[in-house]
Design goal:
This protein has 7 helices and 6 strands, in the order αβαββαβααβααβ. With 198 residues, it is an alpha/beta fold.
């Protein structure tokens, strides 16, 4: 809704009918229904107009479609104009030790079969499709947030929990600025542009 409120024409895509209906309600409440369209379909089957979008924003979706990441991204990128900006925020796990620990800790976030954080081969697929893709990693110590603030209810948490959470994220930002530590990040922001020559 933020982009639509800033004047952008937005097309939202989700596989969940309930999520699409909620998005339509939010658009109506925010007075941007005329700027927002919503499509309920899987990414690799959505009937999006070719070469139509200036920005493709993918938020925590790709780790659900790893069984056909290449095909899904190719289909989605067909809707992008040449030179369009592509932004993705996805869970990543580039460290072998952290991958092993993930399966030992009793925190399960899987929603779809085969779901897992993106690993190096997955990033290589994206880098092939989006030349010059850059990455910025976050959330090394931030993984502890789930234990500091149960249920991620930051606004309702006691002040000491919010302060502790803020300190953890501040340390994260400093540590993960160093390339040697970037593989410890649990979330990645990926940014690139669709080739103009395609």
């Amino acid at each position: 809704m933020i982009l639509a409120k800033l004047g952008a024409r937005v097309t939202g895509l989700d596989v969940s009918p309930a999520a699409v209906e909620l998005a339509r309600q939010r658009a109506a409440i925010n007075g941007v229904s005329d700027l927002a369209e919503f499509v309920c379909a899987p990414l690799n089957a959505a009937n999006l107009p070719e070469r139509s979008f200036d920005v493709i924003w993918i938020d925590n979706v790709l780790h659900h479609v790893l069984d056909d990441l290449d095909g899904t991204m190719r289909h989605l990128l067909e809707a992008a104009k040449p030179g369009a900006l592509v932004l993705c925020i996805e869970p990543v796990n580039l460290n072998r030790t952290l991958r092993k620990i993930r399966f030992l800790v009793p925190v399960h976030t899987e929603v779809t079969p085969g779901e897992r954080p993106l690993e190096r081969p997955d990033l290589a697929v994206l880098e092939t499709l989006i030349p010059g893709l850059t990455r910025r990693h976050f959330d090394f110590l931030g993984r502890l947030t789930r234990f500091i603030i149960p249920a991620f209810r930051y606004e309702r948490a006691p002040a000491w929990r919010r302060i502790l959470c803020d300190v953890v994220h501040a340390v994260d930002r400093v540590v993960l600025r160093f390339p040697i530590f970037e593989e410890l990040g649990g979330m990645g922001i990926l940014r690139g542009n669709v080739s103009r020559s395609r």
